[in-house]
Amino acid sequence: MLLNVQRNYPMCELTTFKIGGAARFYVKAESIGSVYESVEFANQQSIPFYVLGGGSNLLVSDKGYDGLVIHMSNTESETTKDGECVHKSCGAGVVWDSFVNECVSENLFGIECLSGIPGTVGASPVQNIGAYGQSVDNLISAVTAIDATTGDFVKFNNAECKFSYRKSLFNSDGFGKYIITSVRFTLKLVGKPNVKYHDLEKYFLKETDITLQEVRTAILKIREYKGMLQMEGYRGFKCAGSFFKNPVVSASHFDEILDGLNGAKSDRNWYWPQVDSDVKISAACLIENCFGKGYRAGRVGLSPNHTLAVVNYDNATFTEVMDFAKLIEDTVYERFKVTLDREVQIL
Ligand SMILES: Cc1cc2nc3c(=O)[nH]c(=O)nc-3n(C[C@H](O)[C@H](O)[C@H](O)COP(=O)(O)OP(=O)(O)OC[C@H]3O[C@@H](n4cnc5c(N)ncnc54)[C@H](O)[C@@H]3O)c2cc1C
Questions:
Q1: Does 268 qualify as catalytic in the annotation?
Q2: Most informative mutation of 117, 166, 219 for ligand 1 (most atoms within 8 A of CB)
Q3: CA distance 111 to 88
């Protein structure tokens, strides 16, 4: 197979932020064979490579990338049934929401709340995507990847992926080492749609007999309202979704934060006690307390409908976004002594 390597490929069109310079080399890898060949090419040229999915969790420097971007685009898939379980293996390049739509249409439970998340199947385990009360770690039974250091295929079961909140082996110890080629999901033929999350409870009020398709429609509407969709026909912002993660603090630190908030925020949806005595708190709540909603500095700002999203309003540069993020992080730290970790990947 002849690898179609392109030079000086503009990366801003490959990301939802619409920011970033050119990649020195770019390959659209439509088969597992071409992923292999791409790694070989990078090795021969003695350059680094970067694995790209839908570019929806990525901020690229205006200087671009002095290496090879491997754009995962393999879409092979297979479905098997086993009693009440349906197993679906999907190529890394499958568009995530097409996969969710397929599962919902087949009346498979457990994935409906993950409707409308941009990106690819291959990236879904990387930061253990989650939304509206569901996360992908509850669905993944296996991840197949190429170990770029040996060239071998490796298969990870769920426990080996080391999933936690927005974290996995693939964005921690194994970052840059594993190229995920396919993911196997196990879904249920029987169950109840998940409508426990407060936005969904509000949407459905006391309605019963809700179908999976109705939950999907509700999620897409809620996401559109928040500007958190990147789909044709829906309104969205140039952003990478949530820029910051929700921080987890100790119980005593939480009490201090509570004092600092001075009762400004006391509804029930801004903190979540964890299994130990730690508390996960809403980063949006802390940010809004410092800046209000929709704070903007020049061409960069917080989304007015979803505070955690940093938005490129008008051809902002990488540096402008990074400066804005630092201002948010420094101010929140000064006020609450909380470090905001970034959810977005920087290249
Ligand atoms: C409007 C909007 C809303 C969002 N809402 C949510 C949400 O509700 N919940 C949520 O969790 N996330 C959300 N996100 C973030 C994003 O959609 C997810 O993180 C998604 O999984 C990224 O997929 P991607 O294919 O675009 O990955 P990319 O942005 O291309 O890559 C992200 C990271 O994964 C790595 N990667 C990608 N593919 C592979 C692969 N095959 N093998 C190894 N590494 C790989 C990349 O190297 C990079 O480090 C949102 C983003 C946007 C823009």
A1: no
A2: 117
A3: 12
Helix (H, G, I), strand (E, B) or coil at 19: coil
Domain architecture of the chain: domains with CATH: 6-72 (3.30.43.10), 77-225 (3.30.465.10), 248-346 (3.90.78.10)
Write out pLDDT tens, residues 234-282: 878 999 999 999 999 999 999 999 888 866 655 557 888 888 889 999 9
* Residues lower than pLDDT 50 in the chain: none
Residue 314 tokens read as 């008008």
The CB-side HSE value for 3 (13 A sphere, CA atoms) comes to 23
Ligand 1 center–CA 56 separation, angstroms: 5
β-sheet bridge partners, residue 145 = 154, 180
Q: What is the pLDDT of residue 265?
A: 59
- Cα–Cα distances (Å) from 196 to 66, 218, 308, in that order, read 46, 13, 22
Q: Which residues line ligand 1 (CB under 6 A)?
A: 16, 50-58, 72, 92, 117-120, 122-124, 126-127, 129-131, 170, 178-180, 228, 230, 236, 239-241, 345
Instruction: Give the span between the Cα atoms of 59 and 344, in whole angstroms.
Output: 7
Coil vs helix vs strand at 49: strand
pLDDT computed for residue 194 by the predictor: 86
Q: Annotated catalytic residue: which of 166, 184, 216, 223?
A: 166
pTM of the complete model: 0.94
Tell me how far the alpha carbon of residue 241 lies from the centroid of ligand 1, in angstroms.
Answer: 9
End-to-end CA distance of the chain: 29
Which two three-digit tokens encode residue 118?
């941009």
What pLDDT score was predicted for residue 223?
A: 94
Q: In the prediction, which pLDDT does 44 show?
A: 94
Task: Please pick, among 34, 242, 288, 329, the residue that the annotation labels catalytic.
Answer: 242
Exposed, middle or buried by CB within 10 Å (0-12, 13-18, 19+), for 149? Answer: exposed
